[in-house]
Amino acid sequence: MENVEDRRGSLRLDMEKQLITVSWQGENNRQYIRDVMCVDVSKGGIKFSIERDIEVDTQVKVQFKSNLIESKIYVARVLRSIKQAHGWYDIGLIFNK
User: Fold this and answer.
1) In whole angstroms, what is the distance from residue 69 CA to residue 5 CA?
2) Which residues, given as ranges, of the chain have pLDDT below 50?
């Protein structure tokens, strides 16, 4: 029986609860860089939790295993930003092709 909860069209990767580095340009051209907790990642996108809102359509650079110099930086854009009851935001990104 198909799991109705999991409708993604691409493979999910096991990065849950791993730290990743994200960076983006916010209001007033301010540059933000944060190490955040990865909630979910697939070939199509990523979801992470962060203490602040990131505006929809903002371009975000994502780096896995950022302590390795040769680690690749992926570019994505914000699809949704949902404030949780505890005050943090779940940010959903889609990777640029």
Assistant:
1) 37
2) 1-14
pTM for the predicted model, two decimal places: 0.78
Q: What is the pLDDT of residue 97?
A: 82
Residue with tokens 């990767």: 13
What SS3 string covers the chain?
Answer: CCCCCCCCCCCEECCCCCEEEEEEECHHHCEEEEEEEEEEEECCEEEEEECCCCCCCCEEEEEECCCCCCCCEEEEEEEEEEECCCCCEEEEEEECC
Q: What is the pLDDT of residue 13?
A: 44
Residue 5 lies in a domain: no
Distance in angstroms (rounded) separating the CA atoms of residues 94 and 4: 21
pLDDT for 69 equals 61
Name the residue among 44, 53, 43 with its Cα closest to residue 82: 53
Q: What is the CATH number of the domain that holds 84?
A: 2.40.10.220
In a domain? residue 1: no
Is residue 6 one of the residues assigned to a domain?
no
